[in-house]
Structure formats: structure tokens, C-alpha cells
Amino acid sequence: MKTAGWSTRRVAGQVDRSECAVRNCWQQWTREGTHARKSGSGSTRKTSRREDRRILRQALVDPTVTRSTIRADVGVEIVPQTISRHLAEANLKSKHPFRALPLTPEHRQLSLQWCQARSMWNVTDCQKVVFCDESRFVLGTDDNCVRMWRRPGERYNSPTPFYVTLPAQLV
Q1: Distance CA 122, CA 80 (A)
Q2: Which H or E element spans position 70?
Q3: Is the model more confident about 5 or about 136?
Q4: Where are the residues of the annotated region Disordered (predicted)?
Q5: How far apart are CA 53 and CA 30, in angstroms?
Q6: pTM of the model
Q7: Which helix (H) or strand (E) holds 49?
Q8: 148 has which bridge partners?
Q9: How far apart are the C-alpha atoms of 12 and 20, rounded to whole Å?
């Protein structure tokens, strides 16, 4: 189009690109005779394919492994975001482990019986009960929570450990 005498603005509108991109492409074409990107553009890789496989294998063998542990074991100076990116490419995400098992029919029956036994309580009876939740308040930056590397859909069918917090009556 440029050799046919079109303006940069007209070419940019035709190919739906910015004028700057068209101008740079035209300059490279006139200078080098090619429009291809230069090889080796971008930052150099810090890890080899073998080290990439090692990072992935560590997360699959021990889902609770931390990025700093992986980095120390691989022995390459990489930032934690690089490890997360390599694991994300393998469809692994860092997730919290689930806290409770799904309720069984027996647990549901016991819970229903507990509620039915207290259905006739009045306000004064309810005021005698201390309700508490298990909320966590983190004042620092690290909540010391164990995280796991998992693929989507591996919440319950994974052999990874989980934590059970059920009331004593339901166990």
C-alpha cells in the first residue's frame, strides 16, 4: 500500500493499526527489506526446560511447597513471580485448602435435631448462648496460611491434606 503511494494514515485505517506501528513497519521494510520481528527480542530465559520441569514436578509431588523452597531447590536466581508463571502455564494455581468435609446425611440429621430441640427458645434463652466465629485477623503481612498448588476441579478428589473443623456434636 505504501509502495502504491498511500499515506501512513490511510494504511493504518485499512489494516486497523496505529500510524506509529505502520510507520515503524515501513521504516524497517525500507531499511532491512523485511517486516519480521528480530530474533532474540525480549528478556532472556533464566531457567532451562529441565529446570522448568523440576519446578512443576515439585509442585505436583508436594502441593504445599512454597515458591521460596522451589527457588532454593532449583538453584537459579529467579523471582517468585517466575515460579508462579511457570506453574500457571501448567494450569496450577495457589489455593487455600478446604477447611471442612462436606456434610454427610448423618451430620445433617444431627444438625436438624439440634435446631429443632432449640426452636422454642425465647430471647432470654438465646442471650445465654455465646456465639463465636473463627475469623482470623492478620495485623502483619504473612497470615501463615498453608496454600496448595492445584489444578481447577481438584478440590475434593485430590490426595492433598485438608483441615476439618466440625463441632464436637457432629463428629
Answers
A1: 55
A2: helix 67-74
A3: 5
A4: 32-51
A5: 43
A6: 0.47
A7: helix 49-61
A8: 95
A9: 9
Contact 4/28 with Cβ under 8 angstroms? Answer: no
Using one digit for the tens of pLDDT, what is the confidence trace for 105-121? 888 898 889 889 888 88
Q: What DSSP string runs through 10-70?
A: HHHHHHT--HHHHHHHHHHHHHHS--SPPTT-SPPPSS-HHHHHHHHHHHHH-TT--HHHH
Cell 532454593 appears where? 72
In angstroms, the CA 113 to CA 131 distance is 19
Cα 167 from Cα 171, distance rounded (Å): 7
- DSSP secondary structure letters along 94-158: EEPPP-SPPPPHHHHHHHHHHHHHTTT--HHHHHTSPP--------SS------EEE-TT-SSSS
* Closest to 45 measured CA to CA, from 12, 108, 89: 89
The residue whose grid cell reads 514436578 is 57
- 112-135: average pLDDT: 80
Three cell numbers at 161? 491434606
Give the Cα separation of 49 and 96 in Å (integer). Answer: 28
Residue 95: strand pairing partners: 148
pLDDT digits over 5-50, tens only? 889 899 999 888 899 988 988 888 888 887 777 666 677 788 888 9
